[in-house]
Amino acid sequence: MYLTIGVLFLLQFISGAAAAPNDLVHLLKRASQSSYAPSVVACPASVPTVSSANALSPNETAWLASRRPKSISALRDFLSRANLSGFDTNAYLDNHLSNPSNLPNLGIAFSGGGWRALTNGAGALAAFDIRTSNSTAKGHLGGLLQSATYVAGLSGGSWLLASNYYNGFQPIESYLTGKNGLGSLWQFDTTILTGPRGLIHVASYFDDLTSSVGAKESAGFDITLTDYWGRALSYQLFDSSDGRPDFHFSSLAQSLPITSGDAPLPLIVIDQRAPGELLIPVNTTNFEVSPWEFGSYDASTNGYVPLEYVGSDFNGGSAKTCVKGFDNLGFVVGTSSSLFNQFYLNLNDTDINKTLKSLLNDVLAGVGAGNEDISDWPNPFYGYGNGTAQNSAFKNLTLVDGGEDLQNIPFHPLLRASRDVDVIFAVDSSADTSNWPNGTAMVATYQRFASGLRQGASGFPSIPDQNTFINLGLNSRPSFFGCDAGNNTAGTPLVVYMPMSPISYFANISTFDLSIPDSQRNSIIANGYGSATRANGTLDPEWPACAGCAVLSRSFNRTGTTVPKICEGCFSRYCWNGTIDSRTPKPYLPSLVAKTSGGSRGLECSGGLVVMLASIVSAFTLI
Ligand SMILES: *[C@@H]1O[C@H](CO)[C@@H](O)[C@H](O)[C@H]1NC(C)=O
Ligand SMILES: *[C@@H]1O[C@H](CO)[C@@H](O)[C@H](O)[C@H]1NC(C)=O
Ligand SMILES: *[C@@H]1O[C@H](CO)[C@@H](O)[C@H](O)[C@H]1NC(C)=O
Ligand SMILES: *[C@@H]1O[C@H](CO)[C@@H](O)[C@H](O)[C@H]1NC(C)=O
Ligand SMILES: *[C@@H]1O[C@H](CO)[C@@H](O)[C@H](O)[C@H]1NC(C)=O
Ligand SMILES: *[C@@H]1O[C@H](CO)[C@@H](O)[C@H](O)[C@H]1NC(C)=O
Ligand SMILES: *[C@@H]1O[C@H](CO)[C@@H](O)[C@H](O)[C@H]1NC(C)=O
Ligand SMILES: *[C@@H]1O[C@H](CO)[C@@H](O)[C@H](O)[C@H]1NC(C)=O
Ligand SMILES: *[C@@H]1O[C@H](CO)[C@@H](O)[C@H](O)[C@H]1NC(C)=O
Ligand SMILES: *[C@@H]1O[C@H](CO)[C@@H](O)[C@H](O)[C@H]1NC(C)=O
Ligand SMILES: *[C@@H]1O[C@H](CO)[C@@H](O)[C@H](O)[C@H]1NC(C)=O
Ligand SMILES: *[C@@H]1O[C@H](CO)[C@@H](O)[C@H](O)[C@H]1NC(C)=O
């Protein structure tokens, strides 16, 4: 108490003016913004080191021991509801419980695509969540989320995960009804340009942004536009009053749904764009962030460091000076979505606070044009590894949006061989053709694998070209890839591709729509639920059983089990069978399956700004 008053006096002294009483809150907030700055700390007794990518972090291994029994138990319930008629899933699980590595291991991936990806992903997440009302009814998929070991997100998909884990992994419904204190979040009708609704001082929002980023710079760290971007996002995703400058991604490791093993492990994907590189090559390094670690199994890096100490000065594989607090939650997801730095750069003066804009221009002058999308991280892999590890040479890492290499679905961490994932539900909200996905993200990851052997990776199934996706309808309903284990290298997961498609709403809004009214937010979420469930099973009453078959497929292979008849039917309907049809398709203009409220049919044009941004960004291709 006294300390707080002392701080306030000090602040008033510094600011050189006696603050009016209602400015005290403001001043206190500003003081808290300084907690955004990372700080030098005494290194712990066991100095943070780089560990090899060959083995999982001991923290993750320990966590798996608490998570796996819970996920298997949830899977048992999911499979009995899925009703694989003619096949006793309970007996199957019982027979193989003694060797848990024979049982299915699930991952779920949420693609990028801005607020569209956040909301469509939220619809799929709600469909998979057993706690969503009616999600255990016939034709629904509730319980798949609870059966998963891992969930991965990038860019807009990373916002969904970070927001949800920060808020204790609550059901998506809570965000819409505003229950449990979530009422002030997910207000996407206000934009990051004006800050959250109900601010006492509008100016204080801009003050917050600049004072937090300024504190980091004063502490001696390089700042980029991504710092401002991450701070702004945090008001929408985490806490509308101060954006939680003091909350770190590594803090999630201590949060309940992780410590109890009740939720899957969240993993975020970030790309590297090496200094001086303008086009991202197909083999660019993909980094992952877990609550415990930051790193990559790609040959350029081949190492992981404790996330809590990621801002430290590492050399030759160990920390020389220790720093904590670099991994601010908003900064991590801001880095994963750094393409959105374009927002700031292209806004005209009436759209953005002039003071802020001139600060941003100063930052930009420091990094040079062409680097506006980067996020600057100290490189913990400096001096680590041998000649094959290119990242050993750089003092800092220039990181960018996880979708900039076109791999807009965050497969990378789920393909880490040591994670043994055998089925991935891939929710794709990419804007490829009229803002609907056309398989481009799948093709990009396939090409990455086709470009050469990848150490540390499991494998990725064969994927046809985008024209085939459209011509065979693979992008307008769920489809399975890599069904035949025998046609793939051992360890390759089966991929259940779940494209965003029009069920009840034209959810194909632009990636750069700055604001989404609540009604539209809800409609996209409901459409995402419908895409994932095939309109609650109305398009295929056996869809939940088919999802169950996909989950069990690799396990059947490992246990030498004959594929049940119902699964044979599912596989013939949902598995891509190798057919190619590369003829140029007609324009993709799908119609609604279940007619409710309208929306836009083709490319949404919400004003010149969006069109301008979209054309600038198309140079980077879409995320
Ligand atoms: C990770 O595990 C080590 C012991 O193996 C422990 O000291 C450390 O606190 C754990 N880290 C976190 C973030 O839980
Ligand atoms: C759940 O299903 C019941 C019965 O079909 C229906 O009345 C109710 O509106 C549904 N709830 C939601 C949230 O859709
Ligand atoms: C713009 O932001 C600055 C802080 O960066 C703040 O002091 C100023 O009041 C803001 N102006 C408006 C019009 O909001
Ligand atoms: C990508 O491949 C090229 C050509 O083989 C190689 O020179 C480059 O070092 C690779 N980059 C990374 C990050 O592995
Ligand atoms: C600036 O933005 C405003 C409001 O968004 C718009 O009306 C105006 O036309 C824009 N001006 C320019 C030069 O783009
Ligand atoms: C260099 O590192 C790579 C991967 O980190 C490893 O596979 C290789 O054996 C190492 N080579 C030498 C000569 O140590
Ligand atoms: C990277 O590090 C160098 C020196 O360590 C620094 O001058 C530079 O500003 C940093 N950032 C970028 C984007 O290169
Ligand atoms: C698929 O999407 C990409 C953009 O991601 C686009 O360049 C390509 O033209 C699209 N192809 C078709 C057939 O729609
Ligand atoms: C199981 O998968 C392996 C490859 O991982 C393959 O060689 C084998 O034929 C498959 N067995 C069955 C029964 O499908
Ligand atoms: C699916 O079920 C949910 C929850 O019961 C309901 O709200 C939604 O309208 C249904 N969607 C479709 C497309 O039938
Ligand atoms: C493979 O799929 C194509 C189109 O999806 C279908 O026309 C063809 O009959 C299938 N072939 C077999 C052998 O099932
Ligand atoms: C089977 O593997 C071959 C060779 O990699 C590939 O061309 C083919 O498309 C694969 N078939 C399926 C159905 O994935």
From TrEMBL:
Q: What class of enzyme is it?
A: hydrolase
Q: Which reaction does it catalyse?
A: a 1-acyl-sn-glycero-3-phosphocholine + H2O = sn-glycerol 3-phosphocholine + a fatty acid + H(+)
Provide the PLA2c domain boundaries: 42-581
Q: What is this enzyme's EC?
A: 3.1.1.5
Name the coiled-coil region(s).
Answer: none
One function term, GO molecular function aspect? phospholipase A2 activity
* GO terms of biological process kind: glycerophospholipid catabolic process
Q: Which Pfam family is one of this chain's hits?
A: PLA2_B
Output a single Gene Ontology CC term carried by this record: cytosol
Q: Which residues form the signal peptide?
A: 1-19
Q: Does the record's keyword annotation contain Secreted?
A: no
Task: State the superkingdom.
Answer: Eukaryota
Keywords, A to Z, come to: Glycoprotein, Hydrolase, Lipid degradation, Lipid metabolism, Signal
- Give the protein family: Belongs to the lysophospholipase family.
Name the chain's protein. Answer: Lysophospholipase
| Native species | Microthyrium microscopicum
- Which lineage is the organism of this entry classified under, starting from the top rank? Eukaryota, Fungi, Dikarya, Ascomycota, Pezizomycotina
